[in-house]
# Entry
Amino acid sequence: MRETIPNIIPPTIRPSLEVVRNQFEAWRKRRRRRGRIPETLWQVARELCGDQGHSVWEVCRVLRLNYNDLKNRVQESRDRSPAVRQDPDLGFVRLDLGGPLVSSECLVEMETPNGAKMRMSIRGVLRDVDPVELSCAFWRQGR
# Structure
């Protein structure tokens, strides 16, 4: 049997956390033994996390919900929604040409305070070696 929730706020109006808490409390008073939370209430709880900027933890605490259940539902709704870039427009265009057009060469020499030395001679395109990671490992070893 499908349970209906009276007095659910229309989707065009954004309810506050307190209004949603009251809706959950009203449902809890009317439900039959450990009934599942209706999808309409889950939807309103998800919207509190997304549109209104409340954290999942805050919504779970106020509405007395399982943190992982709400977190998974919020993540699922984000995965299903069309991808919207949140990155600000930085005013430039990134042009990826797939690699260097001309042959390049680089020589990197490093020395730690304890006297360890490292020299990297890089020619052409790097495919299997990450010089930044190699450098980080060298500096960690030299401490």
